[in-house]
Write a structure and sequence with these properties.
- The structure is a single chain.
- The chain is mainly α and 395 residues long.
- It has a single domain, classed as Na+/H+ antiporter like fold, CATH 1.20.1530.
- Helices cover 82% and strands 0% of the residues.
- The chain has helices at residues 6-27, 32-42, 54-74, 78-109, 114-123, 129-138, 145-178, 183-222, 225-245, 251-262, 266-273, 276-292, 297-301, 303-327, 332-342, 347-358, 364-394.
- α7 (145-178) runs parallel beside α16.
- The model has no long low-confidence stretch (mean pLDDT 83).
Length: 395
């Protein structure tokens, strides 16, 4: 179908299909997330009928992630981070390293080369913040200890993925030029991006705490609901853009820090509540974008490989996370909830594999395999999460 207005048509068809299939999923007692992903598959180039503009859909979904991460920051204080840092920081690092190693070895055994296997392993080691937060919101446990550990855990994972995506192109360039990897240049790249992120975080926290609360008070004095909503979008998107454009960090990290700064301000929480409907719409577009980039034929072409990948994502990560939580003497119920929340992959996996494919590191089939396992794990995650909650409530 020819599209004269790609932005409008993509937005309209996405919202309508998401509503219809989300409603059907709800009536069938299934998570609405399933309906949203299926809506994306129906709108993808791999199915007949209307084809959504994937580039536009991805950007709209990014807005949803920005607003969602902004709200995460509003619910996560420095005190929370200090309280969970003994678990979240080492836990995230150990889980990422162990999962990456396990999945990399499996890929090597499946006859993929080392770089392909490494990208495969890393992409399966990081969970989706969007999916995890949806579960916490649905069951009203966002402010519990285990949710704060999980959020801190994923913040560390996100920072690690940012570093990987910065040094990956440099490594490939070195291989092409010298046919070898220069560890000194890699170390310099890691040091550089880490320093930029630290500088951005310090500047955001130091300057933002003095400016943003005063800014919101000024906006509230105008008594304009529209300006209040716009101020939230301006703060969240502004910090996200600065983080990405100037410091080389992700949009999500910038938005998270903006919300983090406003956490101690009562006006900050009150303000973001006014934009929840807008945030929900764009968050739905994230799940639609997942379906858009999926080629369903990979399931029939490589069913065994897709099954192995999905098992690694769901059980490999969950078992690692559970053992780490038990190592820190956490209760079984809390350990299961965190394990279930991490038993999926999402946005950073998509970004990393897309980057790797653009750099000619991985094949289209490996990319589709990661996407397939992501979709399957996202669809199954609500059921796993509910099982974990039921176990905790009975224990």
């Amino acid at each position: 179908m020819e599209q004269s207005y790609p932005l409008i048509s993509t937005l309209v068809f996405s919202v309508v299909f998401a509503f219809l299939l989300g409603f059907i999923a709800s009536r069938l007692k299934l998570p609405t997330i399933i309906g949203y992903i299926v809506a994306g598959i129906f709108l993808s180039p791999n199915t007949p009928g209307f084809i959504a503009d994937i580039a536009i859909a991805k950007q709209l979904a990014e807005i949803g992630i920005i607003l969602l991460m902004f709200e995460v920051g509003l619910h996560f204080s420095m005190k929370d981070l200090i309280n969970v840092h003994k678990i979240a920081i080492p836990g995230a690092i150990i889980q990422m390293l162990s999962t990456s190693l396990l999945c990399t070895l499996c890929a090597i055994l499946l006859k993929y080369n080392f770089l392909e296997s490494l990208i495969f392993g890393i992409s399966l080691s990081v969970a989706s913040t969007v999916v995890m937060l949806r579960q916490f919101e649905q069951y009203h446990i966002k402010n519990t200890t285990v949710s704060k550990i999980a959020i801190g855990w994923l913040v560390i994972e996100d920072i690690a993925m940012i570093i990987v995506m910065v040094i990956l192109p440099a490594i490939i360039d070195m291989i092409h030029l010298n046919n070898e990897i220069n560890s000194q240049i890699i170390f310099e790249n890691i040091t550089s991006i880490t320093a930029k992120i630290i500088i951005f975080a310090i500047a955001t926290i130091t300057i933002g705490k003095k400016i943003l609360p005063t800014f919101l008070i000024t906006i509230y004095k105008v008594r304009s609901r529209e300006l209040v909503s716009l101020s939230v979008l301006a703060i969240a998107s502004g910090f996200a853009f600065i983080a990405h454009a100037i410091f080389g960090a992700s949009f999500a990290l910038g938005a998270f820090l903006a919300g983090f700064v406003l956490n101690e301000s009562k006006l900050g929480r009150k303000t973001v509540d006014k934009t929840l409907p807008l945030r929900d719409i764009f968050a739905v577009l994230f799940f639609i974008s997942v379906g858009l980039i999926f080629n369903p034929t990979i399931i029939t072409k490589e069913p065994i490989l897709v099954l192995i990948t999905t098992i690694l994502v769901i059980f490999g990560k969950a078992i690692m996370a559970f053992l780490i939580m038990k190592l820190f003497r956490k209760k079984t119920g809390e350990s299961l909830i965190l394990s279930a929340s991490l038993a999926q992959i999402g946005e950073f996996s998509f970004i990393l594999t897309a980057l790797a494919m653009n750099l000619n590191i991985i094949s289209q089939s490996l990319y589709d395999m990661v996407i397939a396992s992501a979709i399957i794990s996202i669809i199954l995650n609500p059921f796993l999460f509910k099982l974990a909650l039921n176990f905790k409530s009975k224990s």
